[in-house]
Design goal:
By secondary structure, this protein is α/β, with parallel strands linked by helices. It has 12 helices and 10 strands. The chain has one domain: Aldolase class I (TIM Barrel, Alpha-Beta Barrel), CATH 3.20.20.70. Strands 1, 2, 3, 4, 5, 6, 7, 8, 9 and 10 form a 10-stranded mixed sheet that branches. Its EC number is 4.2.1.24.
């Protein structure tokens, strides 16, 4: 413990403080939907919205005013099919959203989620054989199409969340072959099969139509496996590695940071957001809990925090930091 004479003096506390938050640490998720004039609150995620493409410019103005300069886009199209075609076509919802963002605010840094579950009629992130085994080659081929289509539309970074074996290597090659060597990949390196994703699946309309995702996401009981997955992503060419969810897996973030020289990201997922948001709104927790939740994620080793609280952070920093 620090000597009392250090802890009692506010100026000294600031001088020796080990961890601080800034607006450069956070990425804000946006859910883009088909239609017009839509800003619809997501029932399980208070103060988070489905936005139609025409509503994006106004949202970007709000984000800029709040100091948010990094976003990650998720598409929620009306139409899906068995081949996940809406994920990789030139006029897909994410491809159009990227172009709108870049036209409105060229300095906004756009990360795109690369997966198939929002676009595939069965809600899964991959394709299956009749016996239930994953069609790895077809899954990777389709994911690579999605990756390149996002880069062509103007994405600054891609973030594959599918968890297919070998996906980082395949996507890196696809990007390089298409002339996008400078586009970085943020891997969902340790993505657990977590119940904390529930509200997101409501938001993204991506709940699987059958079975679950435990065959390609990680068992929450396994930490050594998580570290191996991080190492594999590094070896395959990832530029940033991620742990998801964040707060229930702070131990994984800390361990992974020790073995990785790459920047570490963490996703403060929808279930974490819903619990804290609802508790604060109900008066069960002070709003400082929002700030503290992000501070502990950064303290554990995450430089990048994907969080639905990004809009709140500027005011929280001014008040509590």
């Amino acid at each position: 413990m620090l000597p009392t004479r250090l802890r009692k003096n506010a100026a000294v506390r600031d001088l020796i403080r080990e961890t601080e938050l800034s607006m450069r640490d956070v990425v804000y998720p946006l859910f883009v939907v088909d239609g017009e004039n839509i800003k619809r609150e997501i029932p399980s995620m208070k103060r988070q919205y489905h936005l139609s493409l025409d509503m994006l410019p106004k949202e970007l103005d709000e984000l800029k005013a709040l100091g948010v300069r990094y976003i990650i886009l998720f598409g929620v199209p009306d139409e899906k099919d068995a081949e996940a075609t809406p994920a990789f076509v030139d006029d897909g919802i994410i491809q159009k959203a990227i172009r709108i963002v870049k036209e409105k605010d060229p300095e906004m840094y756009v990360i795109t989620d690369v997966c198939l579950c929002e676009y595939k009629s069965d809600g899964h992130c991959c394709f299956f054989r009749d016996n239930g085994d994953i069609k790895r080659d077809k899954s990777l081929e389709t994911l690579c199409k999605v990756t390149v289509s996002h880069a062509k539309a103007g994405a600054d970074m891609v973030a594959p969340s599918d968890m297919m074996d070998g996906h980082i290597e395949a996507m890196r090659k696809a990007l390089d072959d298409a002339g996008f060597e400078s586009i970085p990949i943020m891997g969902y390196s340790a993505k657990f099969a977590s119940t904390f994703y529930g509200p997101f699946r409501d938001a993204a309309n991506s709940a699987p139509a059958f079975g679950d995702r435990r065959s390609y996401q990680m068992d929450p009981a396994n930490s050594e496996e998580a570290l191996k997955e991080v190492v594999l992503d590094i070896e395959e060419g990832a530029d940033i590695v991620m742990v998801k969810p964040a707060m229930p897996y702070l131990d994984i973030i800390a361990k992974a940071k020790e073995l990785s020289y790459l920047p570490m990201a963490a996703y403060q997922v929808s279930g974490e957001y819903a619990m804290i948001r609802n508790a604060v709104d109900a008066g069960l927790l002070d709003e400082k809990a929002i700030y503290e939740s992000m501070l502990c994620i950064k303290r554990a080793g995450a430089k990048i925090i994907i969080t639905y609280f990004a809009k709140d952070l500027k005011a929280l920093i001014e008040k509590y930091q």
